[in-house]
Structure formats: C-alpha cells, structure tokens
Design goal:
It comes from Enterocloster lavalensis. The protein has about 110 residues and is mostly helical. It has seven helices and no strands. It has a single domain, classed as 434 Repressor (Amino-terminal Domain).
Length: about 110
Amino acid sequence: MSIGLRLKEARKARGMSQELLAEKIGASRGVVTNIEHDKVLEPQPLVVNAICDVLKINRQWLLRGDGPMDESGEAGRSAKVLSEIYTSVKELSGEEQQFILDMIQTYIRHRRG
C-alpha cells in the first residue's frame, strides 16, 4: 500500500474530506490530493507531522506502513509536542528562535547534571 492510499484510508476513517484536512494542516487541497494520488512520494516533514497530528495517526505507518495506523504511546506524544513547538516558534525571528534553542540546550545540560 502506498503513502497515498494510507493517507486516504486514514482521512476517510476520520470522516474528513480532502478540503477539510488541507484547511486543518494549513495547506491547499492540491497538497492532499497530490499525496493521495502518489504524485508526491516524500511529502515535506512539516506536512507529514501536521497530517499525523490532525488525523491522530502513527507517522511511521503513514510513511512506510510500519506499525498500527492509530497514534499511540510516547512516540505519538513526542511527535505532537515537537509539532506544537515548531508551530509556536516558526513565527519568531531567527534571533528569538536561537534564544529558545539555547534555553532548551541549557535545560538539557542542567538536567544531566
């Protein structure tokens, strides 16, 4: 099964139209259509993350057919948090983004002791 067929299956399982999914991920309907028709074999990671977040599906399942369709466990939560972080900081200036990254790295160093 291709990524396009998996996306279509997940979208329909959630009762969502291509247009609604596109709106929720902040893209055009053409983006969703092109993926579903396998015109895009490797969608941009940002698009994949948004799709998985909106449809609550496993990223590895969407990309490669690995594991269950439904998002579960720590990996699903981590993907959602990372997607939310990206969405939050993408509007910031480069300098502000660097500040956030420095804070995260400082936290990690402090936590390691």
